[in-house]
Amino acid sequence: MQAGAALPEGEDKVRAVRAMFDTIAPRYDLVNRLMTFRLDVGWRRRAVAALDLGPASTVLDLASGTGDLCRTLAAAGHRPLGLDLSLGMLRHARGNAPLVQADALRLPLAGGSMDGAVSGFALRNFVELDPVFAELARVVRPGGRIALLEVAEPANPLLRAGHAVYFGRVVPRIGAALSDASAYRYLPRSVAYLPAPAELLERLAAAGFGALVRRPLSGGVAALVTATRRVESRPADPPGAR
Fold it and tell me: Which domains does the chain have, with CATH numbers?
């Protein structure tokens, strides 16, 4: 993805995102640890704890990448299932969780088959959010929980200014030195795909989730959104769902 080029949309975005993550998969974990100063490890633990599910719960890790959240879920006593569009990421995944290559807009899962779901910094990489939220509402049982991590912008003006410089200038340089320059130029720009926090919560509510909470993490450089699948009639399985 060229610097300054318009952000891709539709099927162009699908192809670009899949190719990008296939490319950066070999050193993805290393770059994450360095550019977050290992804060991402704690964020994932917070997300899993916030699910507040019983032991041995079946939890979908949507856009599981190299399996960080799957491993955190397993360490907490849950039964994770990883799903990602990028075969390259799945091939570099570590851990024993079952993994599936699939599109988040068409989850190959039966309705109500998951006790919960998590996702780590993936919302801005989906082509559309509303169908993804609808699929999560379909596969998570009534009363089940979701926990979604995403990058954010600090509310404090000084922190926001410093974060903008770090995320927009330093992170691409770290990525260029250790992995793929174009990918790490794209990732800070991809924040533009995210809706405003209030709108994100409204769209989750419209999909069938309640008890919505958004928590800033580490001064607001990341955010954790949790929600409960409302106890109501769930959407029917689409054709071909298992």
Answer: 10-229 (3.40.50.150)
**pTM recorded for the entire structure:** 0.91
Taking alpha carbons only, the member of 86, 72, 224, 49 closest to residue 148 is 224
For the chain, the distance separating the N- and C-terminal CA atoms, rounded to the nearest angstrom, is: 35
Alpha carbon distance 216, 151 (integer Å)? 10
Strands (E), the chain: 58-62, 79-84, 99-101, 114-120, 140-151, 209-217, 222-229
**In the numeric block, which tokens belong to residue 36?**
């977050």
Question: What pLDDT was estimated at residue 10?
Answer: 94
Whole-number Å distance between alpha carbons of 10 and 219: 33
Q: Beta strand 140-151 with 114-120: parallel, antiparallel or unpaired?
A: parallel
Q: Whose structure tokens read 């995210």?
A: 194
Confidence band for 239, pLDDT divided at 50, 70 and 90: very low
pLDDT at residue 241, as a whole number: 43
